[in-house]
């Protein structure tokens, strides 16, 4: 992996914040390959960087299926707020 200095500790790759800064592109390449890296500062872990979980339409459908639908008052509140935003009221600051 080029000159990227990565150490193994407890089965997880680690690197210092300085190394991460200097070799950020290499770090992102490693993450893109599916690797996870713990970034340390002063020998203390400060971040874990791992590949992002790609969300799908199925994930969205499942999340929406688990939500409680809004009650009638919510719909009324939205309609009233929309009416305020789209009303033809004059701007009190226009003449200022």
From TrEMBL:
Record's Gene3D superfamilies?
A: YefM-like domain
Alphabetized InterPro entries for the sequence: Antitoxin_Phd/YefM, YefM-like_sf
**Where in the sequence is the signal peptide annotated?**
none
Q: Specify the superkingdom.
A: Bacteria
Pfam families assigned: PhdYeFM_antitox
User: Which NCBIfam families does the record associate with it?
Assistant: phd_fam
Function recorded in the entry:
Antitoxin component of a type II toxin-antitoxin (TA) system.
- What family does the entry list? Belongs to the phD/YefM antitoxin family.
Name this polypeptide is given: Antitoxin
Name its species. Answer: Natronosporangium hydrolyticum
